Give the backbone structure.
Amino acid sequence: MIYLYSWPAPNGHKAQILVEELGIPYRLIPIDITRGMQREPGYRAINPNAKIPAIIDDEPMDGGEPVTVFESGALMLYLAEKEGRFLPAAWRQRNEVMQWLFWQVGGLGPMMGQAQHFFRYAPDPVPYALDRYQNETKRLLKVLDLRLAGREYLCDDYSIADMACFPWVRIHKLTGVALDDFANVQAWYGRVRGRPAVGRGLDLLRDRWVDVSASPEARRNLFKVE
């Protein structure tokens, strides 16, 4: 059994989509980040960074004690390696998937997250920050668009790289950046969104979603400086 600690946000959706694509037994445990549950001691013992998602695997590959994995990219690699799916065995193809996975973890996610923050959540307008992160979001979407030229998926075959990028592209409207200039991204988005397991992953915890822009309490709990 995989115990998945998550919440309906892009990084949580990455893990939720993956467990649905894999079709493995899992138990979903909501961590309401809008109420500060990510900072509770019990969850910090699982994820010291106090973010979602995280997993506990009570049947790890080495047959030993349960394994805890935090950070979404590490979590996706762990499950893909364990199940032998969505991560190629061939070295060259695997290398490409790893690059695009880390491209998302280190670039697309953080930059779109900051664009979303300054577009929707900043208490006062910060034009320099908004321009900075929206422009970087556009640059990264152009990188993605060029990569997808002539390809159905990022690394030809559908992989954890696509699952990692998709939930962030999905929130583009929340960053104030349109996809109008990125035809390849739009076509890829439609292909990924049309997968039944992707729909199931997005539907998990959908009824728990909170509009952070309309909730001062949620903003305090999400953006609290410790």
